[in-house]
Design a protein that fits this description.
Length: about 800
């Protein structure tokens, strides 16, 4: 994270923006890039035609020695090397004319598999030098590849070009899943990183007159054509899918002579229709860079001065669009630079913006929070009004079809050698980016403190900042990871604390280019009545056949606080977003606060035979405070094996899971009993999602159905140590889920020993087999998935 890579040198920064080292290879034409492990980098050497190609993983410290280093002899001009992040693999593709060789290496350098693929369609006639063939492999998220073989021929008599593109989908072990030929004249680039497992082809059609037209083609995971579109008046390529399934395109508007003019962005619907578009007239041609974060797009634009011959002229603009281009906001970097890029950190709410001046070779880097307004240093990124246009891009059917081809595969083990690819350190020179002199970084001097008050009391959270350089400070308070509108001062006050305000409070402080994150302060309400807030004690001292005694609460509003009598269980009911009745059970010390988002009701539960009971419906957040080792939490939906079958309606298809957004736990002595919510799915699209019990040690088990963050949500599984289930000490159990995050972010993981991927069931006895982990777990920014996940 925070690493800028390029041809010839690499500079790495720590989380505070300090340059830790600069590195340059001694040999020319070496490409360096970071890996998910900050202690390692990837390098490959690009050499002239006919020579060797070298690649490997290297340390970022000491002598920068190789973790591994391989050299393949000859065919450097016919070899492409790419890295895939999920799973972490290195893919080498070698075009051998009538055969294409694919080699897959793990990041420890071992060969996972190697195969050569042959087809009667491959190969070029060596007597015609105007014919050519190229091949490349594009990783698919979660495993597998798309092998692309592109052939081009040029007619000696007419000068016209013809293209043939062959696509072969390979499994994660190299087996051929399907092989297709794209019927239609175009030169395609492949994008296979979509969450929907769709495959997009960005194509260019070139006529005999040299006119260029852009096309976009969508295939499903089985290689079937979904649609193909020709884009009138534009030359755009697919960048990827937003969380809502729209496809983002980037490129240029073209005039009637097919000459690129303005830069452009467009969004296509899942059916290939143009839903939104924007032309950026103040941008240099093809200078627009867009990065997707959920349903948001971070846009970086260099001005037309760069294309006009002024390499350091700028200015560089940074934009943010939510969902489409109807709410596009711009900021312009104050210093004259050649180009820039804003990249969000998908595992937090930070954004890294880097700007480069080709004339002076200066790289300037700053960070800010992803609200893009209150947290940005206005002296460096002042807000501007930038006029955009509607370029009038139309999408019409391009008429492409797909045809099956025959491809055979044979295993191959390459001859690997080693070679001299060494590095040298460069002097590290850096300074603070300001509009007038250097500054001393600010720090948080006094953290906000947790508070326990009676309902209706006034509450104030305060942060104090050490600010020796008198930088302009901005504040943004959040509750449970969601920014509080208007909470932009050093103190955040609540005039009358109620159940709806209970939660975990933090503040983000921006001082110049420095962003500071406070510790967490929890607001807890005293249980002055039983219950507090929007619920009623529906029935008390219910003797259950399992021997437990229950007090049944019923939510009749949006927020309430309940407690359990000594030796008894407090249970509260509501209906979730999928119309399942959900029971939350709590026992032991402390208070449980339940808050319902998007609430409706009270109303009869439509999927159940309970005409006399009215429930609130919504998505809950649960906060537990004042707990200790006697405290336990359980959550489940009412189904045929978890409730009274008599209340179920025939003919109804039940979801069978309890949908909850977030559970936050704080403890008086650093301990908690157990969390048994294997029937619960912890999911949401904003704020924190999952389980947050930082530093709390569990004397019992933790069993969770699954965690899934979408949109801008931050997934969490933060705990201290965990006793675990019998026979599985130290392990958190995932019951039937795969921990795949819809928004692609890493799951922030605490200090528990392990996560075991196990089997589960829904509330109606439908078995869920144990799944292989599909997400990424990180601890303190480091990928720990392979070291903490076990099973199935």
């Amino acid at each position: 994270e925070g690493t800028s890579a390029g041809i010839g040198n690499l500079t790495e920064f720590d989380n505070n923006g300090n340059a830790t080292f600069r590195l340059s290879p001694l040999q020319p034409s070496v490409f360096l890039e970071p890996t998910t492990d900050a202690s390692r980098m990837f390098a490959q050497q690009l050499r002239p035609e006919g020579t060797d190609v070298t690649f490997g993983i290297y340390s970022t410290s000491g002598s920068y020695g190789p973790v591994f280093q391989h050299r393949l002899t000859a065919n450097a001009d016919k070899t492409t090397i790419v890295r895939g992040a999920s799973p972490a693999r290195i893919y080498v593709t070698r075009d051998l004319n009538t055969e294409v060789e694919v080699l897959v290496f793990r990041e420890d350098g071992t060969l996972e598999w190697g195969r050569r693929y042959a087809s009667s369609s491959f190969g070029v006639n060596s007597s015609f030098p105007t014919d050519s063939q190229s091949s490349s492999a594009t990783p698919i998220s979660g495993g597998g590849l798309i092998l692309s073989v592109a052939k081009r021929s040029i007619s000696f008599t007419t000068g016209a070009m013809s293209y043939q593109t062959y696509l072969i989908r390979l499994s994660s072990t190299g087996d051929i899943v399907w092989a297709k030929r794209v019927v239609g004249e175009a030169n395609f680039a492949v994008n296979a990183a979509s969450a929907s497992q769709s495959i997009y082809l960005g194509g260019t059609e070139i006529s005999m007159m040299g006119e260029v037209t852009g096309t976009v083609t969508k295939l499903n995971s089985n290689g079937a054509l979904v649609w193909s579109r020709r884009l009138s008046g534009a030359f755009l390529f697919p960048l990827g899918e937003l969380a809502n399934g729209r496809l983002l395109l980037s490129g240029s508007v073209v005039d009637t002579q097919f000459t690129p003019t303005d830069s452009a962005l467009a969004l296509l619907s899942s059916s290939g229709a143009v839903e939104s578009q924007v032309g950026i007239s103040f941008a240099a041609r093809n200078s627009t860079i867009a990065v997707i974060e959920g349903n948001r797009m971070w846009i970086s634009v260099a001005s037309g001065n760069v294309a006009g011959g002024s390499p350091d002229g700028g200015p560089v603009h940074v934009g943010l669009a939510d969902g489409d281009f109807s709410n596009l906001r711009w900021r312009r970097y104050v210093n004259a630079m050649s180009n820039g890029m804003a990249v969000p950190d998908f595992d937090s709410d930070a954004v890294v913006a880097s700007f480069f001046n080709r004339g002076t070779s200066a790289l300037e880097v700053l960070t800010f929070r992803d609200d893009f307004s209150s947290s940005v240093d206005s002296t460096l990124l002042p807000s501007v009004t930038a006029t955009t246009t509607n370029p009038g891009i139309m999408a019409v059917d391009a008429g492409y079809t797909m045809a099956d081809i025959t491809v055979t595969a044979a295993a191959v083990t390459p001859t690997l050698q080693t070679g001299a690819l060494t590095f040298t350190t460069l002097p590290v020179t850096e300074s603070a980016i300001t509009t007038g002199g250097s500054s001393v970084p600010a720090t948080i001097g006094t953290q906000p403190s947790s508070q326990k008050v009676n309902p209706g009391a006034t509450v104030s959270f305060t942060v104090a900042v050490n600010n020796p350089s008198s930088q302009t400070l901005s504040y943004q308070w959040s509750r449970n990871g969601t920014a509080i509108s208007g909470a932009n001062a050093a103190t955040y006050s609540i005039p009358s604390a109620q159940a709806a305000q209970v939660g975990a409070y933090t503040v983000t402080v921006t001082a110049g280019t420095t962003t500071l994150q406070s510790a967490t302060a929890v607001l807890e309400l005293n249980a002055t009545t039983r219950p507090v807030g929007d619920s009623v004690l529906f029935a008390s001292d219910i003797q259950h056949p399992n021997g437990n005694i229950y007090d049944q609460f019923l939510l009749n509003g949006t927020a309430t606080v309940i407690t359990a009598d000594p030796g008894q269980v407090a249970r509260i009911s509501f209906v979730d977003a999928n119309d399942d009745i959900v029971q939350v059970e709590y026992s032991g010390s402390g208070t449980l606060t339940l808050q319902l988002a998007n609430a409706t009701g009270p109303a009869v539960a439509v999927n159940y035979n309970q005409a006399t009971v009215s429930y609130m419906k919504g998505t809950p957040t649960i906060t537990i405070a004042g707990a200790d080792q006697t405290s336990n939490l359980g959550i489940f939906s009412v189904g045929s094996i978890t409730g009274n079958p008599a209340v179920l309606k025939s003919g109804v298809t039940y979801d069978g899971f309890a949908n909850v957004a977030l559970i936050t736990i704080s403890s008086t002595n650093g301990q908690f009993g157990g969390v048994r919510i294997g029937n619960a799915l912890l999911s949401g699209s904003s704020g924190n999602v999952g389980l947050v019990a930082t530093g709390v040690n569990f004397t019992g088990p933790i069993v969770i159905g699954d965690i899934d963050a979408s949109g801008t949500a931050s997934p969490k599984l933060l705990t201290g140590t965990v006793a675990g289930l019998t026979g599985f000490p130290g392990e958190i159990r995932i019951a039937g889920g795969d921990l795949l995050q819809t928004n692609g972010r890493a799951l922030e993981f605490g200090t528990a020993t392990a996560v075991r991927m196990g089997a589960g069931t829904n509330a109606h006895g439908v078995s869920l087999p144990a799944k292989t982990v599909a997400g990424r777990l990180e601890r303190n920014g480091q990928d720990v998935t392979s070291t903490v996940v076990v099973g199935p």
